[in-house]
Amino acid sequence: MMRITLTGTDDTIVMDGDGSLDHDLTILKDGVTGWYSTPAVREAGLDRPQQDGCYWPSRLTQPGRTVSIHVLEHAISSVQAALMSQRLCALMGHALTLTVEDQLGTRTCTCWLADDPAAGMLVTQTAFECTLVLYCPDPYKYGEWLWQSPQSGRLHLANLGTAPTWIRFRAASHITTLYAVWGDAEIEWEGDTSELLLDTRDMIPSAGQVIADWALPVQPGKTLLTIQTDCSTLDVGIRPAWR
């Protein structure tokens, strides 16, 4: 069972692979590439002068992910084919959300159309067929947000994925201070507001100001957070990430 949803600003395209009727396009057999694999690292070893082997790079990083989806729509008229082509072309130049539901659960990433969806399009009296090529600048696939509240200033977070991910703080009542430590990371915020959203990925708060920013992503596995705050309804969110 697989369902892929491509969500744009003004339209949502639903693609299904199980033959159900509540979708726009049918995913062909073996029609998805780039989703279940992972991009190769960008770095290469630097040759050791007059020695065997190479030096290790300072870090190993991945480029963006390219996902191709080969789809088909059956039993449509030429007018319907033209309308579907128009819907797909309208997605070009916009930020999109790719959502895949399969036996592993629901995982998402952001992307854009990297190629003309009408390129190589096949249209007959009974079928419409094309390939959607999507580029995901962030190669990770993310699960749903999981929210927890600290108890006595401590919180155990579990990143169930295989890649590092970022923490998000959310306050729904009066807050003036927030100080959090996990591993080698340390952040501090101050302000005076009844609502706060702070994502450690960019450290741009919805209110107040950050006065200490040594944020780091949460690695796979369990992480202990120590939190000091005067907010009574503070939640900490995490999205598991997979390579």
Mean pLDDT: 91
How is the main sheet built? 7 strands, mixed, barrel
- Helicity, in percent? under 10%
Strand order of the largest sheet: 1-2-3-6-10-8-7
* Distance from first to last alpha carbon: 21 Å
Number of strands: 21
Shape: globular
How many helices? The count is 1
Key traits:
single chain; 243 residues; mainly beta; seven-stranded mixed beta barrel; five-stranded antiparallel sheet; 1 helix; 21 strands; 49% strand; globular
Short recap of the structure:
By secondary structure, the chain is mostly beta strands.
Explain this structure to me?
There is one protein chain. By secondary structure, the protein is mainly beta. It contains one helix and 21 strands. The protein has one helix spanning 78-89, and strands at residues 3-7, 12-16, 25-33, 46-47, 54-55, 65-74, 96-102, 105-113, 122-123, 127-136, 141-142, 146-148, 154-159, 167-171, 175-182, 185-193, 196-199, 209-214, 221-229, 234-238, 241-242. The strands form five sheets. It has a seven-stranded mixed barrel. A five-stranded antiparallel β-sheet has the order 13-19-15-16-18, with no helix packed on it. Strands 12-20-14-17 form a four-stranded antiparallel β-sheet, with no helix packed on it. The longest helix is centred in the middle third of the chain and has 12 residues, at 78-89. The radius of gyration is 23 Å and the shape is globular.
